[in-house]
Amino acid sequence: MKKVVITGGAGFIGSYLVEALLARNYNVTILDNLSSGSLRNIEGVLGNPNLEIIKGDIRDKNAVSKALVNCDVVFHFAANPEVRLGIPTEHFENNILGTFTILEQMRKKDVGEIVFASSSTVYGDAKILPTPENYAPLKPISVYGASKLACEALISSYVHTYGFKSIVLRYANVVGPKSHRGVVYDFILKLKSNPRKLEILGDGTQTKSYIWIEDAIDATITAWQKTSGGFEAYNVGSEDAISVVEIADIVVSVLGLEDVKYAFTGGIEGRGWPGDVKYMHLDVSKLESLGWKPRYNSREAVRLAAKHLKSTLNS
């Protein structure tokens, strides 16, 4: 059996990937400092004999080196997840420096395959929607997006200098159980606090793609298994996009509320916060050419996420 290392394996996306790969009989080692992830996310597989958990930081070369013993492939999903108003130093250290540390230890341990969780934010304010992977120039407008693009560049350099194989996955907004951030989660918390009024960041016209977590995991594994070598980037998203106001309407409907007043903060150019990409819609045809297709569109994914969060927060 192949041994895979999943950095950030106790996080939202990483924990689902852990479960999926264990179900496919891989040996899985999680490397996670548990700063934003939680063992509760993987409680269903904690007793699995094919699972090893190492509590450690991706910036710590000794922890990374220990995790990479007899490793075949690294799924690098650990990062500072805060897109909105994150501290630049944290993005640099957790994303860029952490990725460099992993690549260096992979080189020294002769581990030549990496699957990297990147982000749609690398595109910035793309002029072409839906945006294909070969869109250029890439101009991220947030430090988070810039850090992800820097990681992609580092990975590309190791591919071409040291013969690595890499798959870079540019995720849209992934939603589903275990997620405790993002607009759906924020809206539900706000409406639980005040069911008559909902504050909406920006002007509400921001439009983006949302993908259900299980679709994202299927995409991840498909891209990994069907890419033969070199550096390949894939967009991972749904085939459509949805506005923030539409998301608000869905959440209000799921909660069974009526006559909710929307209060818009306005923001710069109607953005939710500085660095917020106002319009994001990914072209996923490259990934679909490998045989993958999302089961849910953005509206269905948002509604599923809202229903789950409603039941979770009510329990």
Offer a few descriptive terms:
315 residues, alpha/beta, Rossmann fold, UDP-galactose 4-epimerase, domain 1, seven-stranded parallel sheet, three-stranded mixed sheet, 14 strands
Task: Tell me what you see in this structure.
This protein is α/β, with parallel strands linked by helices and 315 residues long. The chain has two domains: 3-173 and 211-236, 3-Layer(aba) Sandwich (Rossmann fold), CATH 3.40.50; 177-209 and 240-277 and 296-314, UDP-galactose 4-epimerase, domain 1 (Alpha-Beta Complex). Helix content is 37%, strand content 19%. The protein is built from nine helices and 14 strands. The strands form four sheets. The chain has a seven-stranded parallel β-sheet with strand order 3-2-1-4-5-6-11, with helices on both faces. Strands 12-9-14 form a three-stranded mixed β-sheet. Helix 7 (244-254) crosses helix 9.
% residues in beta strands: 15-25%
Overall structural class, as computed from helix and strand content, comes to alpha/beta
Task: Tell how many strands the DSSP assignment holds.
Answer: 14
**Can you tell me the CATH topology of the largest domain?**
Rossmann fold
Q: Give the count of helical stretches.
A: 9
| Overall 3D form | globular
Shape-level CATH architecture of the largest domain: 3-Layer(aba) Sandwich
Strand order of the largest sheet: 3-2-1-4-5-6-11
Q: How large is the radius of gyration?
A: 19 Å
Report, as a whole number of angstroms, the end-to-end distance: 39 Å
Percent of residues in helices comes to 25-40%
CATH superfamily of the largest domain: NAD(P)-binding Rossmann-like Domain
pLDDT averaged over residues: 96
Show unreliable segments: none
Q: From N to C, what is the helix and strand string?
A: EHEEHEHEHEEHEEEHEEHEEHH
Number of domain modules: 2
CATH class of the largest domain: Alpha Beta
Sheet having the most strands: 7 strands, parallel
